[in-house]
Amino acid sequence: EEFVDLVKGLWDSYEDDAFIRDKESGVYIDPDKVHLVDHKGKFFSVAGPLNVGRPVQGYPVIVQAGASEPGRELAARTAEMIFTANQTFEDAQEFYSDVKGRLARYGRRPDELLISPGIFPVLGGTEAEAQANYDHIQSLVHPSIAWNILARHYKGVDLSGYSLDDPAPPLPDNTELNKSRLKLVSDLVSRNNLTLRQFYLAVATARGHRTVVGTPEQIADAMQSWFENGAADAFNIMPPILPTALTDFVDQVVPILRKRGLFRHEYEGTTLRENLGLQRPPNGFVVQAGQQQAQAAV
What's the whole-number average pLDDT of the chain? Predict the structure, then answer.
C-alpha cells in the first residue's frame, strides 16, 4: 500500500501543463505546478519530485495479482485490473462480486476495476483432436520435474512413500505458496480427488489457472459465459506453446468473438489505458487542492 501511494505521488510530481517551454520568455516550467514528494514511511524513504514529466496515461495501468483478503482490499483501493486464477465459474463469480462490492467505500465505480482471470486454451479442430493436443503437452513434463513441483507444494511432507498414482494428500499450511494460491490448489485437489500425477500436471502447465480444451467455438463459449455472467471483464490468455498456440488463438478464436460482438475490430486509442476503457486519472495533488478550496469555501 505504501509503495502504490508513493509511486502515484511521484507520477503526479508535475501537473500535466507544468512544462511551459517558452523559448521567447525563457520560462521552462511553472514552479506552482511542481509538487515535491518528501516521503518517509515504514518501508520507503524517497525524495521527489520525479525526474520525468507525468506519464501519458496519467499512471501506467495498475495491475494487481493475489486473491487473499489483504490482496482483495488492496485491489479495491488501488488497482485498475486484477490478474486472478479461478478454476470454476462459481469461484470466479464469488471473487468478481466480492471485489467489485468493495469499490464503493473507496469512492470508486465497478467499471474502474477490470477482473481478468487467466485461461489456458488448448485448441483442436475437434474435441478429440484438442484432447490429444492437451495429452501431448502434458506428456512433455518430465517426471523429475514432477517431484520438484510437488516438493514446493508439500514443503516438510515426506513423499518418499508415495507413487505418482497415489491420491494427493491435503496440502500443508507451510507451503511456499501465498494464501490465495494455496486455497486455489487445495480446492483443486479436494474437488477433483486428484492423484499426485494429475495434480502436478494441472499446475505444471496452466500454473493453476483455468484450462479449457476444445474447438475454437467451445473456447469462445467458455469465455463468453464467464464474461456475460459476472465472472470476468477480460481474460489473460496463457498459450500452452509459443508462438504457435497464440497465433492459433488469434486466428481461430478471435474471429468468433468478433462475430458475437465480444471483441473489437480496431483499437479504441493509442495507449493500453484507452484500449482497456479505463479513464485517465486526475493528478492527485490537483484533486487535493480542489477539495481543500471547497472546504475553505464552506
Answer: 93
Nearest residue to 164 (alpha-carbon basis) of 154, 155, 172: 154
Q: Please, what CATH class does the domain formed by 2-117+265-297 belong to?
A: alpha beta
C-alpha dist (Å) from residue 95 to 5, 67, 73, 79, 185: 25, 8, 12, 15, 16
Domain residue spans in the chain?
2-117+265-297
d(CA 132, CA 261): 31
Distance between CA atoms of residues 54 and 24, nearest Å:
24
pTM value? 0.87
Q: Which residues of 108-117 are buried (b: 16+ CB within 10 A; e: fewer)?
A: beeebbbbbb
207: left (phi over 0), alpha (psi -120 to 50) or beta: left
**How large is the angle between the packed helices 2-11 and 69-78, nearest 10 degrees?**
20
